[in-house]
Amino acid sequence: MRVAVLSGGRSSEHGVSLNSGAAVAAGLGQAGHEVVEIRIGRGGEWTTDGEPVSLVPAGGLAAQLSDLGVEVAFPVLHGPFGEDGVTQGALETAGIPYVGSDVLGSAVCMDKLTLKALCGFHGVPQVGFVQALTPGWQERAAGLGYPLWVKPSRLGSSVGITKVEQPGPGSGGDELEEAVAAAAAHDPRVIIEANSSGREVECSVLGNQDPDTSLPGEILADADWYDFEAKYTDGGMDLAVPAPIGEDGIAEVREMAAKVFGLAGCSGLARCDFFVEDDGTVLLNEINTIPGFTATSVYSKLWEASGLAYPDLCDRLVRLAVERQEAESRHSF
Fold first, then answer.
1. Are both 38 and 86 inside the same structural domain?
2. 127 contact partners, CB below 8 Å, separation of at least 6
3. Are residues 179 and 166 in contact, defined by beta-carbon separation less than 8 angstroms?
4. Per residue in 114-155, pLDDT tens?
5. Do 210 and 113 belong to one domain?
6. pLDDT at residue 58 above 80?
7. Residues 232 and 258 in one domain
8. Which member of 286, 300, 310, 316 is catalytic?
9. Is 292 among the catalytic positions?
10. What is the CATH number of the domain that holds 222?
């Protein structure tokens, strides 16, 4: 098939996305597909081979992708304007099959507050959380205990996150309020989460209605926590696969990953992140619908350890995209 790989984007994860896109293009090539690389600039402009791609759905995007012979799109766009349903909406309107979750699933998983509210409704175990900048948030946050984690609700790659060790003044005022202000500089929706001292365990999910799950792996960060540098610097982290949490723990993580994938309305792929505490309790942390996607990223490394090579993984995702569109085309609105 002829596949358009979309990378770059407007978010702070632009550079990471370009690396993921280059790896996906190479993997698809190894799997026997033809690749059209589309780069989305920091200003939102789409180009291929230096030529602009129009986003006008009726006669622009659909027509140009058709002229390019594109049969499937493979978005590898991390963060806002790529992982949150915006690009997926453009592809839906243009009638192009695409890899990954649809508009709703992408939007739900991108917003940590929405995902956690959904999972809490369905009884999924997770750390306590509070939405900052809402009435009474300071008191409710204090009730979670310390340390606390303050995060932009709709951003990834550990950008804008602060660990608040204890209540008290910071360099310019209250430390918690400073952390909230720092997160709000990235996103007006800010989440405050309770701490877990458990192991950081991640599990990759692949499929549509009946997804497969990989062996889980434990993140061993060469830092106080798994921040941006640890994620994207060589030697910043190690991955232990399978995670040393026992057979029952592995089975529970895989089962919960598949459950959350379904509850959130995901399709294609996702990486589910958990904490596994000393007593074996598994707590949901978050789910990423377009995780880092180089051959050495956690998502693909977990599948490699589970017996699925990177080119085969890329190929499977393209075929899942076509399968989903064919299934959805049988329903009319």
1. yes
2. 193, 194, 195, 196, 275, 283, 285
3. no
4. 999 999 999 999 999 999 999 999 999 999 999 999 999 998
5. yes
6. no
7. yes
8. 286
9. yes
10. 3.30.470.20
> Which of 292, 310, 315, 324 is labelled catalytic?
292
Which residue is catalytic, options 98, 232, 299, 310?
232
Is 80 exceeded by the pLDDT of residue 274? yes
Among 8, 13, 154, 189, the one annotated catalytic: 13
Q: Which of 166-180, 219-233, 290-304 has the highest mean pLDDT?
A: 290-304
pTM score over 0.70: yes
- Using the CB atoms, write b or e for 8-43: b if 16+ within 10 Å: bbbbbbbebbbbbbbbbbbbbeebebebbbbbbeee
273 is catalytic: yes
Instruction: State yes or no: is 42 an active-site residue.
Output: no
226 catalytic per annotation: no
3-class secondary structure, 226: coil
Which of 39, 271, 316, 324 is the catalytic position?
Answer: 271
Tell me: do 114 and 145 sit in the same domain. Answer: no
Nearest of 128, 84, 166, 127 to residue 179 by alpha carbon: 166
User: What is the domain-level CATH number for residue 82?
Assistant: 3.40.50.20
Is the pLDDT assigned to residue 233 strictly greater than 70?
no
Domain extent at residue 12: 2-99
Is 208 an active-site residue? no
Indicate if 271 belongs to the active site.
yes
Domain count, the chain: 3
Mean pLDDT, the chain, rounded, equals 91
> Residue 171 pLDDT > 50, yes or no?
no
